[in-house]
């Protein structure tokens, strides 16, 4: 949920099994430019990042792509992975920039900026498919968040922002 049309009411973003991502305004109408069409099912809850000048929708698909969709329904960028994406993205502000983190069934955690460019040191291989969305915490109290994930083998892994193991 996010207010895309500036009327102080939340609008709805959703993905479907027929490979669509919809932006539905609070009055029930579909936003111009939507639905966005992927190549396979959308199995993750879309996430919305407010960049100040616009909102961007992020969602993974079973077509091995993370899609970043502008508020007008156009594709901002996509990140191709080696396998399905079945977890929602997470956002981290770091050094004045915003980064998008997500895991895929290829056992990798990806980190990209708002233009789709990989953060130095990423992706990282965690040894098994990612089973939950990425979270962040300053585990060592050094003022920088660490990247924490779980894989399907019930391993909890933590990485520094540069992609090295914590």
Describe the structure.
The protein has strands spanning 12-15, 20-24, 36-37, 47-50, 55-60, 65-70, 75-80, 90-94, 97-103, 108-113, 124-125, 135-137, 146-150, 156-159. The protein is mostly beta strands. The strands form four sheets. A four-stranded antiparallel sheet has the order 4-5-6-7, with no helix packed on it. The protein has a four-stranded antiparallel sheet with strand order 8-9-10-11, with no helix packed on it. The chain has a three-stranded antiparallel sheet with strand order 1-2-3, with no helix packed on it. The chain is globular.
Helix content: under 10%
Oligomerization category of the chains in this entry: single chain
Strand content: 35-45%
**H and E order:** EEEEEEEEEEEEEE
Strand tally: 14
Count of runs of 4 or more consecutive helical residues: 0
Largest sheet: 4 strands, antiparallel
Mean pLDDT score, rounded? 96
Q: Could you name the ranges where pLDDT drops below 50 across 5 or more consecutive residues? A: none
Could you tell me how far the N terminus lies from the C terminus, measured between alpha carbons in angstroms?
Answer: 33 Å
């Amino acid at each position: 949920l996010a207010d895309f049309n500036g009327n102080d009411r939340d609008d709805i973003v959703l993905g479907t099994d027929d490979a669509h991502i919809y932006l539905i305004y609070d009055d029930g109408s579909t936003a111009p430019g939507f639905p966005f069409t992927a190549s396979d099912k959308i199995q993750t809850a879309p996430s919305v990042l407010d960049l100040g000048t616009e909102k961007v929708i992020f969602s993974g698909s079973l077509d091995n792509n993370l899609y970043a969709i502008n508020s007008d329904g156009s594709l901002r960028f996509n990140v191709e992975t080696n396998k399905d994406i079945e977890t929602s993205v997470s956002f981290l502000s770091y050094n004045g920039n915003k980064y998008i983190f997500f895991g895929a069934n290829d056992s990798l955690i990806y980190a990209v900026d708002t233009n789709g460019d990989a953060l130095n040191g990423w992706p990282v291989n965690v040894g098994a498919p990612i089973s939950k969305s990425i979270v962040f915490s300053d585990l060592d109290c050094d003022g920088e968040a660490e990247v924490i994930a779980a894989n399907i083998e019930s391993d909890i892994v933590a990485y520094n922002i540069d992609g090295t193991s914590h």
